[in-house]
Amino acid sequence: MSTQVNFRTINQLAIPATISGIAEPLLSITDTAIVGNIPADSLESLAAAGIVGSFLSMLIWVLGQTRSSISAIISQYLGAGRLEEVKQLPAQAIFFNILLSVVVLVSTVFVIEEIFTLFNATGKILHYCVSYYSIRVWGFPLTLFTFAIFGIFRGLQNTFYPMVIAIIGAVLNIGLDFLLVYGVEGWIPALYLEGAAWASLISQAIMALLAFVLLMKKTEISMKLVFPLNKELKRVIFMSLNLFVRAIALNVALILAVREATALGDRFIGAHTIAINLWLFAAFFIDGFAAAGNSMGGKLLGAGDYNGLWKLAKKIVLYGMVVSLILMLFGFLFYHPIGQLFSNDTLVLDTFYGIFYIVILGLPMNTLAFVFDGLFKGLGEMKYLRNVLLTATFLGFVPCLYIGKFLGWGFYAIWVAFVIWMLIRGFALLWKFDRKFRPLVQNP
Transmembrane segments in this chain: where (predicted)? Predict the structure, then answer.
């Protein structure tokens, strides 16, 4: 089964994947922007939204790795022309993943205050964290379910349906945010931060339902749990475990950043919340080409087309770099208006503007890391991805963060550490791909 590697085929996957990929960070960005402009306690509400958002992102990224494993295996079997052999695999993998997520959800409900105390949240911020999380956490299994189905579609070389689901979810979330946060006089009371949590939960439920319906109607993949277990389930589990460890290392960096920003003071965690949401938004924007690499890379590997795989890597890096340069230009042109979308607090905005240029200048390096990250997931190279993240986090990010803190860099130490982190990730993946696949390519 041949796969054309050109601008059209790549962007048929990348553009819808870009739109669907920004759904989750867009939910957080919407919450951040609307919560940051609440008439009372906007600073505390913004800080709480940032802390809870970081923790939920950690849970989703740690337990949501089944998506990449399912996508890799389905795309490889599709490329080899043997898809029939794994049609029962997704239901089995998703069942075990959701079961694990419910266990995690129930276990955190009883220790919410202790969890956010670890983030240095105290007083009113801690209170808001608890109330916000108590609602949003119930959307956690729904998001994992939706992500897993997105992985199935991605493995089938279809990113269109995830895009449709993501657009509906994002639009619904924005509308509900305005409706529930600010309220409608005489009809709906203003729920403020809790309103943002309910908006996200309702949107996640609708997205999960739509994903399930489209999977049933538009594919031959069954969601019925049947036995015996598929022969590839063991491979899915080991891939997911490697990505599980990798995601923990990734979230060590994100959580330490939130913890150190919180320790610096309310205006710093407010500024960090804005910056990290924009960083994640840009990451998922660029991640559309990573998704194309994931889908097409697995299929090309399954078909044994190494020339096509090499061509794919060069093209998705090039296209990703063009997008990152456009984002950089946009960031510098609208440097101050972007910040004003998220907060009306002068101290928070001044702090944010002090490091926003670091976020912008790091985009090309982020592109290299994210694009190869997606490609390696499609190739099933989960062990190497794990090792790269462990190295980048514990030999790059953590030492840089605390050396910078020792030298008195303050808030800058956090974002310089992010740059070093992404530098290690990007070049380690580029080196490995070149070393492993260049010898297999004819006339590279």
Answer: 46-64, 93-112, 132-153, 160-184, 196-215, 236-257, 269-290, 316-335, 355-372, 384-404, 410-431
Q: How many Cβ atoms sit within 10 Å of the Cβ of residue 182?
A: 17
Contact 153, 159 (CB under 8 A): yes
Q: Would you say 411 and 357 are in contact if contact means Cβ atoms under 8 Å apart?
A: no
Would you say 201 and 135 are in contact if contact means Cβ atoms under 8 Å apart? yes
Backbone angles phi, psi at 111, to 5 degrees: -130, 35
182 closest CA partner among 174, 232, 223, 93: 174
Contact (CB, 8 A) for 293 and 312:
yes
Burial of 84 (0-12, 13-18, 19+ CB in 10 A): exposed
Based on the number of CB atoms within 10 Å of its own CB, is 422 exposed (0-12), middle (13-18) or buried (19 or more)?
A: buried
Amino acid type, 209: L
Mean pLDDT of the chain: 85
Q: Is 183 left (phi over 0), alpha (psi -120 to 50) or beta?
A: left
Determine the Cα–Cα distance for residues 363 and 49; give it in Å rounded to an integer: 24
Q: pLDDT, tens digit, for every residue of 210-247? A: 999 999 888 887 778 877 878 888 888 888 888 888 88
Burial pattern 96-105, b for ≥16 Cβ within 10 A else e, equals: bbbebbeebb
Burial class (CB in 10 A: 0-12, 13-18, 19+), 29: buried
Backbone dihedral angles phi then psi of residue 110, each to the nearest 5 degrees: -85, -10
Residue 240's closest CA among 108, 97, 407, 361? 97
* Contact in structure between 313 and 50 (CB atoms under 8 Å): no
**Six token digits for residue 282:** 């840009």
Q: Write out the two tokens for 146.
A: 């939706």
- Banded pLDDT at 399 (limits 50, 70, 90): very high
Q: Which two tokens stand for residue 150?
A: 């997105």
